[in-house]
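Dear U.,

For the methods section draft, I wanted the exact inputs and outputs in one place so we can describe them consistently. I've listed the two proteins in the order they'll appear in the manuscript figures. Please don't edit the token lines directly; just add comments below if something needs changing.

First protein:
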Amino acid sequence: MWRTPTEDDFLSAISATEDTTFRTKLLQGGQADPYGPILAQTTGIFRDAIRSHSANRLDPDASKLPEAAIFHLVVIMRQRLSTRFNVGEQTEARRDEYKEANKWLAGVAKGDIRVEEPGEAPSTQTPVLSPAVNESPRRDGWRHQDGI
């Protein structure tokens, strides 16, 4: 499923303190949403990576990304803002997430990672289980007729 990344996606990856600091540093006079332009720029980077491999198709809406890309987009945004303003938690887990996000982006550009087609249903398949039948063998004779 392709969708437009939202501010809520980004807010799910940062702390309240980071949010306050980023907003304070990014807000300019008359600007209502400091994350909007940054989301659009980062979305463009991801769409360029997807476009760079000939097997991938893009959604016609320039604001949409595949669901799998949004997690990585948020990680890259968080890292860029944290390092730009020297703010936020720089934990080993966050650095590892950033490395993985860049590796995912490079894999998409090379075609090593398949991006779902726009309008394509998620590729998770649920196995169809066959019904289990537990039949006791039928026994004939008067010794096996208890309860009849």
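Second protein (the one for the lower panel):
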Amino acid sequence: FCALYAVLNAMQILHGISPSQARELFNVVLLRVSRDEKAFRSILQHTIDYVDFVDASLALFSRAYPMTVKAPFSAGTDCASVWSSLKEYARPDKKRTAVFRFVRYAALRTTPMADHWSTAREMDERGLHLFDCSLEPKGLYYLARNAMVEKAGLLHQDCYVIPPESVRLLSLD
């Protein structure tokens, strides 16, 4: 449910919702999708189109919590453009954030070690810090710009790919 958690984390940044409000919103989405067995199975079996799921969750939540949602990128957009937008939107002080998917690769591997949705918290000299629910000891809690690549391959360093079409830029302006 990391895609849904990412959306809920964004709601905390934008609207300051409490954990109990986030739990209620989580329950609303699960109850709604559970009415359609095929859709619910696709979530449980990780075959759902998560971009559509994120968009539907954002649309549902925006009824009670207004926000501006932009999907500015298509597949093939260069890393520099994606990074620049994430940097602009990783601004909780301005009520801006981003929800996006990243795929993490270990050095010299072409199969992903993680495929995860997260929320942009803030940017500093180390990189993009994530607002994330994951508590994994080897979890990734910030993304360094120099590890972001357009496409995974047999690289000599760990890297990650952010599919540009997954990026949702959120704001209250």
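Candidate sentences for the figure legend, describing the second protein: The chain has a mean pLDDT of 93. The longest strand covers residues 96-105.

Thanks,
Y.
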